[in-house]
């Protein structure tokens, strides 16, 4: 029996090197601790709380006491072998020291999950380090820490988290002293000043007032029934218009805030790529530049001017190709000699577009964005050049540029394997595929072919697992038949001799072991690639590790990224 080769398996294997008792999986760095490290060690029997460099050291016995004695408690769940935890340690200690020096009610603590698995299981720790914030001794509903992983970011996030959700402005003077005065929301009767901090339990911090002088000082006249919420964030103001009858939709507000918290042009770095990923913008336009050149400042300025026009519609991202971003260049088929250049990707429909102009002027960039939004530009698909000897051997070699011509030939029945060079199952299939090609090499209307899907994209066939096998019957309707039974010479032969009809299930061995995640969903009309969906889910669930995945399993993951529809 067999399983399909899919990114899901690879990601889970990488992110799940160890497992605790019960259902809690601990995902992190590939370094796997020895089995004896998993032995639960409960040497401390009392509930006394000790400190290490200002950080409380917690275990299963003193955890409840720590919650009871501290109104606000940030807890780091870590593993001693975890590199991310080691990198965080000095920042965590510095943050604890700053809060202690300020006599803050906030305390920082840590738990070694390898020693205290019960706590890891209770709080569903899936990656290292995981930080959870406990308020008012509430053990049942801790808040996930979402701030930056440095001392300044930790302290800032915590202080915002314990502050009041709203601040009432009872005078113009109070408004002038408000720390959120430059990030304003205005209502006709209820005036709110909104600042994006962090969404905790679904709430957004805001400031409000009902004092008309304050409203006048802030915004002047506002026509009813429209409510306008402007958010500046050091960029040109963007307004969210709210229908008086429909009211304020929470999801729409969250999307608006996440979109407008971004700078007009965000530089792609390892530190902020997840911030880009989480931005609620379907269209991302990327400027590939070399910062060592004299022209890069002018190019960025042109890009920035265009960004101001499309804020909320297109997310503008710049990438310095002198950095270690080969995976991004490979995904968009951009070579360093092509720079400067521009690409655009729709992350919802997972379609890419190539900049059609020679000059990267503001007007050309704006026209490009608008044409993509209006559907006036064709999707860009990667393709190798057609090999001169592509049809010399029994198994024909297809690329993006000659795929349609061969696969949709009305006089031929074509069986195509979509493969990845790194895929083990594809490697196992290779000799069988060669035998199949040899068997039908002289057949007048049957063609056996293959295409490397890591380097070639086909619009009509979204690839969702490897190997994927499709049958293209000889007719004018451009039909595509999914091959979903055993991959052996006998079954392939029966399938082809039956004119692309699946053999009866009783006559062949079906892959019963292939689980839902491993099998390819061969829905030809689906826009999203399963590989991409898995990558998206993995990045969301294991955000702490996502930045390092590329380095951990290169070069194999580079190939994977090149065939999925996710450039992060």
From TrEMBL:
Disulfide bonds join 82-85, 423-426. InterPro entries: PDI_thioredoxin-like_dom, Prot_disulphide_isomerase, Thioredoxin-like_sf, Thioredoxin_CS, Thioredoxin_domain. The keyword Disulfide bond applies. Residues 1-20 form the signal peptide. Pfam families: Thioredoxin, Thioredoxin_6. Residues 25-163, 359-501 form the Thioredoxin domain. It is found in: Endoplasmic reticulum lumen. SUPFAM superfamilies: Thioredoxin-like (SSF52833). GO terms for cellular component: endoplasmic reticulum lumen. GO terms for molecular function: protein disulfide isomerase activity. This is Protein disulfide-isomerase.
């Amino acid at each position: 029996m067999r399983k399909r080769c899919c990114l899901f398996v690879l990601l889970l294997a990488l992110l799940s090197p160890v497992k605790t008792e019960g259902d809690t999986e601990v995902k992190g760095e590939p370094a796997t601790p020895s089995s004896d490290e998993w032995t639960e060690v409960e040497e401390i029997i009392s509930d006394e709380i000790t400190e290490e460099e200002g950080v409380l050291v917690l275990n299963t016995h003193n955890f409840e006491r720590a919650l009871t004695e501290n109104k606000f408690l940030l807890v780091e769940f870590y593993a001693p072998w975890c590199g991310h935890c080691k990198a965080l340690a000095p920042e965590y200690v510095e943050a604890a020291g700053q809060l202690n020096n300020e006599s803050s009610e906030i305390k920082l603590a840590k738990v070694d999950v390898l020693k205290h698995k019960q706590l890891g299981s209770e709080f569903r720790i899936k990656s290292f380090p995981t930080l959870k914030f406990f308020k008012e001794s509430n053990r049942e509903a801790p808040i996930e820490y979402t701030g930056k992983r440095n001392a300044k970011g930790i302290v800032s996030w915590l202080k915002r988290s314990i502050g009041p959700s709203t601040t009432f402005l009872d005078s113009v003077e109070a408004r002038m002293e408000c720390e959120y005065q430059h990030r304003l929301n205005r209502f006709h009767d209820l005036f709110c000043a909104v600042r994006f901090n962090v969404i905790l339990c679904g709430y957004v911090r805001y400031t409000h007032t009902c004092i008309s002088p304050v409203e006048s000082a802030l915004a002047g006249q506002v026509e009813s029934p429209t409510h306008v919420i402007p958010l500046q964030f050091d960029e040109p103001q963007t307004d969210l218009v709210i229908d008086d009858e429909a009211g304020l939709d929470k999801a729409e507000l969250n999307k608006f805030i996440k979109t407008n918290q971004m700078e007009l042009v965000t530089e792609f770095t390892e530190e902020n790529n997840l911030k880009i990923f989480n931005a609620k913008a379907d269209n991302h336009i990327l400027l590939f530049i070399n910062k060592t050149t004299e022209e890069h400042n002018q190019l960025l300025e042109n890009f920035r001017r265009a960004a101001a026009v499309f804020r909320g519609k297109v997310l503008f991202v710049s990438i310095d190709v002198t950095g270690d971003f080969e995976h991004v260049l490979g995904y968009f088929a951009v070579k360093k000699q092509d720079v400067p250049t521009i690409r655009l990707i729709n992350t919802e429909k997972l379609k890419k577009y190539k900049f059609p102009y020679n000059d990267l002027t503001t007007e050309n960039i704006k026209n490009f964005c608008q044409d993509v939004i209006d559907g006036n530009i064709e999707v860009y698909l990667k393709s190798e050049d057609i090999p001169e000897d592509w049809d010399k051997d029994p198994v024909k070699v297809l690329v993006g540029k000659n795929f349609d011509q061969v696969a949709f030939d009305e006089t031929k029945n074509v069986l195509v394997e979509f493969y990845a060079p790194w895929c083990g199952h594809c490697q196992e299939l290779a000799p069988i595929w060669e035998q199949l090609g040899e068997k039908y090499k002289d057949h007048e209307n049957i063609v056996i072919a293959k295409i490397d899907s890591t380097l070639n994209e086909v619009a009509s066939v979204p690839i969702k697992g490897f190997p994927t096998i499709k049958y293209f019957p000889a007719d004018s309707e451009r039909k595509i038949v999914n091959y979903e039974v055993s991959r052996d010479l006998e079954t392939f032969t029966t399938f082809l001799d039956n004119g692309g009809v699946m053999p009866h299930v009783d006559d062949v061995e079906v892959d019963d072991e292939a689980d839902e995640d491993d099998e390819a969903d061969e829905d030809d009309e689906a826009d999203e690639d399963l590989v991409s969906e898995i990558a998206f889910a993995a990045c969301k669930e294991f955000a702490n590790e996502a930045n390092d995945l590329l380095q951990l399993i290169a070069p194999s993951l580079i190939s994977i990224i090149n065939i999925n529809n996710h450039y992060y």
